[in-house]
Amino acid sequence: MSEAKFPKLLDYEALKQQFGEDDPQTKTSAFSTPVKAEFDPEERLFSDNKEEKKRPGLTGTRLRSYAFAVLTRKEYAKAELIEKLALYADDRDEVITLVDELSRENYQSDQRVAEMMLSSQKRKGKGPNQIKMKLKNKKVDTALIADELKETDWAQQAYELKVKKYGVDVAKEPKLKAKQIRFLMYRGFEMDAIIKAINRKPNED
Question: Domain range spanning residue 184?
């Protein structure tokens, strides 16, 4: 993956200084970077005390600080981040404006989310239809990885998965072939790649 397709990430060192790395209650991010917000709206929202179960009503710098704390833990799609922050914010319009700004500055990136999704799902043996569906659920445009989807040899991906599950022999019984087809369809592969995979003979290029 080229550097152009993977823009700058957050300045974690600056965030560590902002939120206090040495606090014993420091939280660990998804990138193994300890981060602690100056407050924890999630703890307040889900407190055992029913009287405390209120929207924290974050605004301004407190909302921005919480947004950075959230983004250090994992990558969020733009639509996901808006919904996440809206749970704790006082004004949804302020959330949308803030997330738009974070997106422009590449602190939030649907491109990164799409590329990470593609990579992780391919490692799990998932086909293009599954990947597109998961991106759609996150409201991420699949066009962001259109080239990568097109360049991937999905027949090879399907064949490797078929071999792992059923071996290298080409199935002759209709029931077994149908079973392999259903298996690969469930994994998100398209029929053209599936037919090539199940009919491919050992050592065949």
Answer: 153-205
Q: Is the pTM of this model over 0.85?
A: no
Residue 128 and residue 101 share a domain: no
- Tell me: the pLDDT tens digits for 161-179? 999 999 999 989 999 999 9
d(CA 98, CA 103): 9
- C-alpha to C-alpha distance for 115 and 156, rounded to whole angstroms: 20
- Counting other chains too, the contacts that 85-89 makes at CB distance below 8 Å and 24 or more residues apart are 85/58, 87/45, 87/55, 88/41, 88/42, 88/45, 88/55, 88/56, 88/57, 88/58, 88/63, 89/55, 89/57, 89/58, 89/59, 89/63
Mark 57-66 as b/e (b = at least 16 C-beta within 10 Å).
ebeeebbbbb
Provide the token pair at 34.
């300890």
Residue 110 pLDDT greater than 90, yes or no: yes
CATH of the domain at 189: 1.10.10
